[in-house]
Automatic annotation (TrEMBL):
Signal peptide: none
Taxonomic classification: Bacteria, Bacillati, Chloroflexota, Ktedonobacteria, Ktedonobacterales
Protein's name according to its UniProt entry: Esterase
Organism: Ktedonospora formicarum
Highest rank taxon of the organism: Bacteria
UniProt-listed InterPro entries: AB_hydrolase_fold, Esterase-like, Mycobacterial_A85_antigen
Amino acid sequence: MNDRAIAGEFVTETFDYDGGRPVTVYVPPDPPEAVVFAGDGKSISQWGRFLEAADVPSTMIVGVHGLTDENLRLQEYSPVFNTERFAAHEKFFVKDVRQWTASRFAGALPTERTAVFGASAGGELALALGLRHPDVYGAIFCASPGAGYQPTEVMPPRIPRTYLVAGTQEPFFLENATRWADALRDAGADVVMKERVGSHGGAFWRKEFLLMVAWAFGRE
């Protein structure tokens, strides 16, 4: 699938964070009207080529690469396992990468045109960052979230619009997504929850990602 012709470009920069952390950006051929910041960005950034064929506004993907060590990845992506490591990655992701993106690609987009995306453990990251930084991310895109980070009894007073999805063939993750959808709705949030025929994997998430972008940023 990655041999699809592309009009935009990919830019990769390696930051000093944690001994060297790459960030890969999909830069659309037209000036971006929206931007999605994503965990596990080595693979997620490549989905930009599919955005070009979709009926959505020009959208940039800023993909922060994740770790291959699953234990350390979970510590970065969920605030419940290692608070210091999560906080360091949160600062890098929310502040450093965003500032670099604005300076490198000529300006920052407003909150309502900015989203955070993640799948599986990355879905926990998207939820955590979106809920903690509603001034930065106007939308949360969450696919098949893990169960480490769960809704709290008292939810934040301001919650970004949230799009959740999980597959019928991944009941554990479907239960997690449904739990979050119910909690966010109870807190008064604007929530979409999709249950699809599918399992835990990239092709399923990539297809839904296009629908997420259309939902959040589609032209009126």
